[in-house]
Amino acid sequence: MKRQCKSGLRTLAAGSAVAAGALALTACGADNGAPSGTPTEATPTTTPGAGGIQCGKSATLKASGSTAQEYAMQSWIKSYMRACRGTRIEYEGTGSGTGQTEFLEGKTAFAGSDSPLSTDQITKSRSVCKGGGRAVHLPMLGGPISVAYNLPGVSRLILDAPTLANIYTAKITTWNDPAIAKLNPGTKLPATPIKAVHRSDSSGTTDNFTSYLNDAAPSAWPHSHDKEWKAKGGESAKGSSGLADQVKKTKGAIGYVEVSYALARKIPTVAIDTGADSPVDPNVLSSSKAISESKAIGSGNDLTLDLNYATKAPGSYPINMVTYEIVCNKGNKAETWPATKAFLTFMAGKKGQEDLTFQGYATLPADVVNKVRRNISRLS
């Protein structure tokens, strides 16, 4: 797969943040452009659309889940719906947990999630996936989870995993705490109270952030990783947009959110001290480098990535997420599956993946994307 990585992230206009409601989008064209030799959709229900996109049978698709992928989903839906005018795609950013639940209740054609289904959820999916099918994961994009902060007068801030864990367990409560000062020599830190913000909804971003704390600071973080926030205290906000807005308006606030949301609101982000030679900022390159260290696991048409949250590799940003599209390996809804399969094929195609870097998302390893394309071609 041809890979394009920018040296930095695209700066998004503050007004471009995607609303938490449904996305029903109708503009922009793109080319699917799967590389030579890559399996592609080849069924009687597939017809050529504008820009070389292969369109499935016209349908209305409803999907929900991850707010982390909303910028990417906005772009994908615009491109596909412009090329395939008979299809309408509505994606609602409800959070990964709700997206999983709605898919397992048969309410959606697919779910977006920043964390994999549990074993119990996989078992439950057999009642939705007909003909002996089960839910599988298609890793579609990656990206850094930034730690955004609101501290006037402090343009650069360095933190590490133990310090973040102590902030989120209320053991560190002011910005001039000695532990923070030690990581930021020469920086004048105010005595402003820290207001730690977490997600109120079931969130894959929370799952990945707590996975980082659990793996990189096990002695300081007393909780296991989870989509639900477990630590006591702090402030909460719903969705990535809600959390970013809360940090933006609250002096002394800190919160974990996908970097595109921080950039859209011009909120500064923390550089993470991983133990490497220098702290690492969240961006496309540093996230892609860390994700390249991940291990692919799963069998058959199922594929998940085991991220290395405790990386100490130079230039590797440790707090990352991978968003999965969740569908059935077989037994998907007959009336929507041709359009869903064609849309997923476009998302995983060359053009769909290259466009992600312009939206602030990290590049998945080429072998992973190629396997995703093969897996999609085998689903039914």
TrEMBL record:
Compositionally biased spans, kind Basic and acidic residues: 223-235
Report the PROSITE patterns cross-referenced here. PROKAR_LIPOPROTEIN
Ranges for domain PBP come to 58-349
Q: Name one Pfam family in it.
A: PBP_like_2
Provide the residue span(s) of the region labelled Disordered.
219-244
Question: Which InterPro entries has this protein been placed in?
Answer: ABC_phos-bd_PstS (IPR005673), PBP_domain (IPR024370), Phosphate-bind_PstS (IPR050962)
What PANTHER family would the database entry show? PHOSPHATE-BINDING PROTEIN PSTS (PTHR42996)
The family assignment reads: Belongs to the PstS family.
Q: What is this protein called?
A: Phosphate-binding protein
